[in-house]
Amino acid sequence: MPRLIYSLIYHLLLPFILLRLVWRAKKAPAYRQRLAERFGIFEKPDFDQAPIWVHAVSVGETIAAAPLIQQLLQHYPQRPIVVTTMTPTGSARVRALFGEQVFHVYAPYDLPACVKAFLGRIQPCLLIIMETEIWPNTIHYCRLRQIPTVLANGRLSAKSAKGYRKISTLTRAMLAELSTVVAQSQDDAIRFIDLGVPPRKSRCSTKITLVPISANNRLASNPAGPPPITNTLSEGINTSVTDFRF
After folding, report:
1. Across the beta sheet with 52-55, what order do the strands follow?
2. 214: which of 91, 153, 170, 171 is 20 to 30 A away, CA to CA?
3. Contact at 8 Å (CB) between 130 and 61?
4. What is the DSSP letter of 135?
5. 219, 228 contact by CB (below 8 A)
6. Looking at the annotation, which residues are catalytic?
7. Is 5 left (phi over 0), alpha (psi -120 to 50) or beta?
8. What is the pTM of this model?
9. Domain positions in the chain
10. Between β-strands 244-245 and 149-154, what pairing exists: parallel, antiparallel or unpaired?
11. Domain 2-245 -> CATH class
12. How confident is the model over 184-221, as pLDDT tens digits?
């Protein structure tokens, strides 16, 4: 029910969100371009395999995600990588860093129809969200499609945590649907747990890297599955989440 109320409020606010885009386009014309993508409408890419979806809201998160994306490209060259952003500057940074190596598209608005349209076109095997860009409908519909959702490099200030507590029913349900949270610090991890992330799904690390493929790795026998990931500061703490280790 809280997510339904959230979706209704989002629908009511959508005209104002679009007006804000128009206002921002006066200074940055790129905001008026590719508007359909924000509703999950774009030409469906012709992928041979289910892609990995990395979401980085803008420039800072894109830069933070760059090493991980580079590792994905290096270790899994056959696996398409989809990178979404919310801003034109984030889009430009993705293009500058990776060019045609990744498929870039704007992230959909967090409305059921938009999210379902996006997932229907992309059909990812995994979603990696950078830092704190968490959206209830996106996470919910990924879970319904059995798409593991990882919050990487997660950060949550005391002020933000206080705000999330005001909508604790929605927040707790949303965070419980995440597959794993890899927080930047122990304080961040504790705040996520306090808000509803099960402790077994929470890890603390300053860096995320890929586990090298080995003979006993599930990916070795299932190359079509998503790649494993490890928390480099928590070697010896391994938690299986489908094909992932943290």
Report:
1. 103-106, 81-85, 52-55, 126-130, 149-154, 180-183, 202-204
2. 153
3. yes
4. -
5. yes
6. 61
7. alpha
8. 0.85
9. 2-245
10. unpaired
11. alpha beta
12. 888 999 999 999 998 888 877 655 655 544 433 444 44
